[in-house]
Amino acid sequence: MSMNFSSFFKRKLHKEENNIAVIGTPTNVNHDIHVTVDEKGLLTGLPSAWMRQIGTQITKDEQRENPLVVKQVLKYYNFSIKKGNEDRPEFKHIITERDIVEESKQIDLYTQSKDAHKSKDSLSDSEQKEDKRSSYPVRPPRKIDGSNLIQTKTLAQNIVDLTLVDDTKKEEVEIRHKSDSTVDLNEDGDDMLRRRSGMTDEDYMIEIRKICNPGDPDDFYERSHKDLGSGASGLVFAATCIKNGELVAIKDIDMTKQHKKDLLLSEIKIMKNFKHKNLVNFLDAFVVNDDHLYVVMELLDGGPLTDVVTETVMKEGQIAAVCYEVLQAINYLHERGTIHRDVKSDNVLLGMNGTVKVTDFGFCANVIGNEQRETMVGTPYWMAPEVVTRQKYGKKVDIWSLGIMIVEMLDGEPPYLREPPLRALYLITANGRPNIVRWNTLSEKLQSFIDLTLQVDVDRRGTARDLLQHEFLLERMELKTLTPLIRAAKKMLHKT
Questions:
Q1: The one catalytic residue among 342, 346, 360, 398
Q2: What is the pLDDT of residue 272?
């Protein structure tokens, strides 16, 4: 809804009569949430809609014992729902620590806004859907295959400190990442960038065309008949590189529906410089008919690690092999000021030869066409406690998520997967490190490795570089030993 700001702030003039002061309507009202526990041990001061969300998910005893945790969880949960309903991007943009700072400010502003204090008799349809966990299907129990039984460094500041962006565009990226304590939740940061830069959508399209391959994608890739999926951005389909015969995924982004061409431009520039053997790499891009952007990415034929962890049992040496490969990808991203923020088995793709690659960041998100929007900023079951508490929130959230992924490889699923997201967030924040059922059966080296990943104290949690030197990884088996597991999982899931 457009608004004339001059009329919005225009004051009504009042005649002074008998020097009686005219008291106007309060402005800049602060709706901050103050939570207390009453005589019965129940929380008071929370918006009524938030109290209804608690329902049976957080007991009265838990409310009494951890009122601050309950407040933090509800604040984060509701902010995530709000962002999820408003922001449905065609791709994930690359996250830096400065983005995290800005997000934390937005969460604080949200709790002071009227949106957080709406009192309704029932939750909205979208909130009810979230409460039913529609975005987080429960995985089936793992099937056992008897044949296979058995400290802190200075963090990089942000993307603009790197030589990844042309000097002519650094100012735009700096504006995008600039921390602004007066940010309005109703104004998207990218809209702010567009306004300040003075560039139009057509200007951005000109810049995008300049950095894309000017050729015809049909001369480089042969499209297969296999569509990988479709979503808000268009179709994702498989193809084969004519030059080397490698499989690729091509995402067709309908530019007429892409409202953030400024962000898209900077992402392409960054992704073209992100190349690593353990990342699902951005390969090429084409503009077709002036209104479609074709983004070409690697495609692995072994499927996600999730299939292996749910259908087979991995040996410690195989777990070490996967961790070693994933850590190399995480370390690469961290050294470039980037946080993945959603490390989990679903986002680790395998090749039939045992290749391990991390996906789901930047343009490589949704490489297999699954564009179902996760409302949470990152999937809650793999989430580090500091994501909710916002204390020392930085790159080490990826290390915690790696630790939870190890639990997946051991138990077939992460802790609390059978719980609704709100309760899972509470348990993660209140309990910290989860219990590991098979702990006493693990080797000392694996126990030590897990200890470094699942430290609630962020300062004591290992960095990616530190963990790459851990003795547990010296026990890693060859990647080709993953191939029988991949084949077994495919057979069990009828994906062959």
A1: 342
A2: 87
